[in-house]
């Protein structure tokens, strides 16, 4: 007898007698939409570990010492370190000299940042207007100033403006005028040296950003009759805003922490400390007076101020809709 039952066969690929087709499985996405996953953090992990060792631990030690009584007696092991709480900060905030130095530091740093940004941006625009040979000469001169160590540049500037042998006084006919004797003239001299060694970073960074702007945009603005200042203010600056944020924050951090230029050019802070800034003031408290806890407290205050300025600046940029 023959069976009337039929045998079911799974469907095969069209036009072939090969194995039957298998149903396709939908693959899960690697990560939810809008989330990059863990892969970037794995790449960043070695750098984060290195930064943690170089930054987090020293900051922890700085904060710890600021809460202790830590003088030469504790360093030598003659007396144990005792916990003072916020006593060092209270002593610091009651010191009128601290507030004078803080105000001088803020004003001096603000002047340095504004001068550096203005000079760097102006020279960056100039680089786009000159020919290849002058542009190369200006770039090499600027990079030479940038690469000069701070202590070397400060020593050279002190010689250039020396009251007895400096060529600047002879050219200007100032006789034996001492730039480092007066408070404001000394700050002005240090500002010029800080500007000289800081503007190349702004110039090179902004110049690279300008070169990335499409030439058609600048040509259209020029054809509309816009002046160079209007092109910078209305076209270049908005497109360069992320770059300007970076160079501004870097300049604030560098200029607020100026130490070498003030210490070398004013002989440790000027006559009777008239040219002190917070970094030099902390150095004097910690090493000249052996009050390491007060010096650490000044360092913590500087850290908090810089973090606050950076966060406020970034918040303002985000409110304006910038991608940072």
From TrEMBL:
<feature type="transmembrane region" description="Helical">
    <location>
        <begin position="98"/>
        <end position="126"/>
    </location>
</feature>
<feature type="domain" description="ABC transmembrane type-1">
    <location>
        <begin position="102"/>
        <end position="313"/>
    </location>
</feature>
<dbReference type="InterPro" id="IPR050809">
    <property type="entry name" value="UgpAE/MalFG_permease"/>
</dbReference>
<dbReference type="Pfam" id="PF00528">
    <property type="entry name" value="BPD_transp_1"/>
</dbReference>
<dbReference type="InterPro" id="IPR000515">
    <property type="entry name" value="MetI-like"/>
</dbReference>
<protein>
    <submittedName>
        <fullName>Sugar ABC transporter permease</fullName>
    </submittedName>
</protein>
<keyword id="KW-1003">Cell membrane</keyword>
<feature type="transmembrane region" description="Helical">
    <location>
        <begin position="294"/>
        <end position="314"/>
    </location>
</feature>
<dbReference type="InterPro" id="IPR035906">
    <property type="entry name" value="MetI-like_sf"/>
</dbReference>
<feature type="transmembrane region" description="Helical">
    <location>
        <begin position="231"/>
        <end position="254"/>
    </location>
</feature>
<keyword id="KW-0472">Membrane</keyword>
<feature type="transmembrane region" description="Helical">
    <location>
        <begin position="138"/>
        <end position="161"/>
    </location>
</feature>
<feature type="region of interest" description="Disordered">
    <location>
        <begin position="1"/>
        <end position="35"/>
    </location>
</feature>
<comment type="similarity">
    <text>Belongs to the binding-protein-dependent transport system permease family.</text>
</comment>
<feature type="transmembrane region" description="Helical">
    <location>
        <begin position="260"/>
        <end position="282"/>
    </location>
</feature>
<keyword id="KW-0813">Transport</keyword>
<keyword id="KW-0812">Transmembrane</keyword>
<keyword id="KW-1133">Transmembrane helix</keyword>
<feature type="transmembrane region" description="Helical">
    <location>
        <begin position="181"/>
        <end position="210"/>
    </location>
</feature>
<feature type="transmembrane region" description="Helical">
    <location>
        <begin position="41"/>
        <end position="60"/>
    </location>
</feature>
